[in-house]
User: What shape does this take?
Amino acid sequence: MEEGMAAAPPTNIKKRKSDRMEGGEPPPPGSVKCDSDGSLDLISRLPDEVLGTIISLLPTMDGARTQAISWRWRPLWRSSPLNLQADHNFTGQDRKRIAFVSKILSVHPGPARRLALLGIRLRHRYGKIDGWLRSRALTGLREMVFRYEIEDPQLPYPLPPSALRFAPTLCAPEIGNCDFPNELAPSLNFPCLKQLTLCSVTMSQDALHSLLSGCTILESLLLMGNNGIASLHVSSPTLRSIGFSASGYWVQLQYGIMLQELVIEDAPCLERLLPLNPNYGPATIRVIRAPKLEILGLLSDGISKLQLGTLVFQLGDLSVHREDFGP
Amino acid sequence: MAAPESGDGNNGAARMVTLISSDNTRFEVEAAAASLSQTLQLTILDGGGGGGDGIPLPNVDSATLSKVLEYCIKHAPAAANGGAPNATAVDRAELERFDNEFVNIDQSVLYSLIMAAHNLEIEGLQSLVAKKVADMIKGKSPMEIRRTLGFPDPTPEEQAEMNAHMLEYGWAYE
Assistant: This one.
């Protein structure tokens, strides 16, 4: 990093560079002490932006703790994109977890890189969760994992519409164990979304179709155990991989509407079509146009009809091109 | 300068460019590898760096540049493949092995590498080195982080500030 003896004449590259290198925040007044002696830890000389990237890769509490390591690091956690992961590693106690999420969202000014709310118990907390999702700290959210813990399957578990305010920036949302606000689907656009995961979500067939048409650069789609979609028709110029299962991670749907038919109408880039739990269907898979399809996962009793172009297989137990079975 | 002209349009596979480090060492490398750097890509697309000219990199010394280029050369084929959707699991495992080995280096080298990746805007390298440092920090107390990163012992004021932070951010220390 020494400017030194560079014999090379300055170019536009150099100019831009050195501007950026000096981009760090000036030390707070009266704390110059470290910089003059050569003994300063080297890492603290990196620009704020670089240190911020490092901090936003850390788990939430680790990130917050970096504020204590020195004056140089003090302001960085608050000025780096927030990475908020509230799962059972965060703390095992539900009530504490709720309090921490509220706390962190109140002290961090945003923006956010990632939010993971996993196994959150809804109970009487809809207003609180909605409030979290509206908070300024989460502005610009790129990655989101949202999953309730289902304590009583008879009760509704609505996904707050505020979770969808991040549509313009989301890259890889994973939504599970909730009821999707169907009425919002037609108005949503996800210009950055490449990977979509829906697991044990209750939503209408129409809502899913609208949602998918709003994902203009979607490459990977994972659908497991969703309720309300009997027949899914996929047309996408960008999609490369679809993983699907009529059954969920944890339980079979005892009631409700499971996926019975998957139709790939037109997917010119589709390479992988993977039934993740083939014993449970869907009963019919039809591929009308997918010229790049290379891998079709393991099939089984649960899938009774497979149609590729005009070729129809009535299946007992047949596997085609066994290469990749995993999600 | 360097208003992106249409240039030569196709950057031929085996086209070579020369990069010149701050201590005046010249490195000849395939344009495709050097183009992993967003910063260099423009200049290269513009036809720069060929022949006797070379692109001076006054902020990167030769030791660091050779390390950076080692990374670029290894990753160039996969990058040319559009994020390597067709890469086999073996290719991917090999790159991962290379990456792990690659950042197994002294901290001073690591920081020079971070700066170079940042200045040259080499996305994959930027996240690789950032992740390495994050791994060094993860799961540690502020005092342990200071030791890991080679900070001097805290002055009494710094110690007092650390304690104050631990009180204020009690939730981060459970």
Observations:
- Confidence is low (pLDDT under 50) at residues 1-12 of chain B.
